[in-house]
Design goal:
alpha/beta
Length: 247
C-alpha cells in the first residue's frame, strides 16, 4: 500500500527516480501533468467558446506545467493569456522548451521585467477582473520562506480580484509539508490539481482554505514505482511482473 500523502523530499525522489531509474524524460512528466491540469480546467469553465483564461507562470517546473495547459487551451480555441512572473531568460530546461513553443504559436504572453513592473501589474490587474478562470502555476512544492516580489503582491491581487482559481500541484505560497503559508498569505484556490500523490500538508484540515477541492492527477508513473523504500516490491507485485529473456 502506498502512503496516502508524501513529503516534499519523497516527491522529489519520485521525480528524480522517474528520470534516472525508469528513463522517463522529464518533459514527458511535465506534459502529462499539464494535460491533467488542462482537463480539470475545462471542467471549471462554464462556456469554453466565450471563456477568458489567465495563466500565471513562474520560471520553474510548476510554470512549465501551466504552459503545457496554456498550449492545450490554445489548441482547443479557448482564449488564454499567459503572464510570466520572471523574464523569459530565467526559464530553463523543460519550462523554457514549453515557453518557446507557446511563443512560436503566437500566444499572448506578457513578460515580467523589473524595469516595467508597474505596467505589468496594471495590465494583469485589468485582465484578472474579467477572467473566467485564473490558473496559478507560479510556485511549486519547493517554495519556502517569505515570498519575494512580485509574488506576494500578485497573490494578494488574485485572492481579491478573482472568483475562480485553479492551482497547479499546490497553491503558490503554501508549504507542502505543513499546509500553512510560507509567508503572509497563499493563493486561495477553488480547486487544486495535484500530481503523483497528495502532499503531507493536505492532511491538515486548515489547508483546505487554500487548496479548495483537491483532485489527484498524474505524471504518467505511479509513486509505487518511484519511491526508494518501495523498490523491494516493484517487480513482485507490479502490473507486468518483470521482464523475461527469450534467449
Amino acid at each position: 500500500m502506498l502512503p496516502q500523502s508524501l513529503s516534499v523530499e519523497q516527491l522529489r525522489k519520485c521525480d528524480a527516480n522517474a528520470v534516472a531509474k525508469l528513463g522517463v524524460p522529464s518533459i514527458v512528466l511535465m506534459e502529462n501533468a499539464g494535460i491533467d491540469a488542462f482537463n480539470v480546467a475545462l471542467c471549471m469553465l462554464k462556456q469554453e467558446d466565450t471563456a477568458s483564461v489567465v495563466i500565471l507562470a513562474g520560471h520553474g517546473n510548476n510554470g512549465g506545467d501551466g504552459l503545457v495547459l496554456a498550449r492545450h487551451m490554445c489548441n482547443n480555441g479557448i482564449k488564454v493569456e499567459v503572464f510570466t512572473l520572471s523574464p523569459f531568460d530565467k526559464f530553463k530546461g523543460d519550462a523554457r522548451t514549453n515557453l518557446d513553443i507557446c511563443r512560436n504559436m503566437g500566444m499572448a504572453i506578457t513578460e515580467y521585467q523589473e524595469g516595467s513592473a508597474s505596467s505589468f501589474i496594471t495590465k494583469l490587474e485589468k485582465k484578472l477582473r474579467h477572467a473566467d478562470l485564473v490558473v496559478d502555476a507560479m510556485l511549486g512544492t519547493g517554495a519556502s520562506g517569505e515570498l519575494r516580489e512580485p509574488y506576494g503582491q500578485i497573490i494578494d491581487m488574485v485572492n481579491s480580484e478573482v472568483r475562480t482559481i485553479l492551482a497547479i500541484d499546490i497553491p503558490s505560497g503554501l508549504d507542502a509539508d505543513t499546509g500553512k503559508p510560507t509567508g503572509s498569505d497563499a493563493i486561495r484556490a477553488n480547486c487544486t490539481v495535484t500530481f503523483a500523490a497528495l502532499k503531507k500538508g493536505y492532511d491538515y484540515e486548515y489547508a483546505v482554505e487554500y487548496t479548495g477541492d483537491i483532485i489527484l492527477g498524474g505524471i504518467g508513473i505511479s509513486p509505487y514505482f518511484l519511491l526508494d523504500d518501495l523498490d523491494s516490491i516493484v517487480g513482485k507485485d507490479s502490473c507486468s511482473g518483470g521482464s523475461e529473456s527469450l534467449d
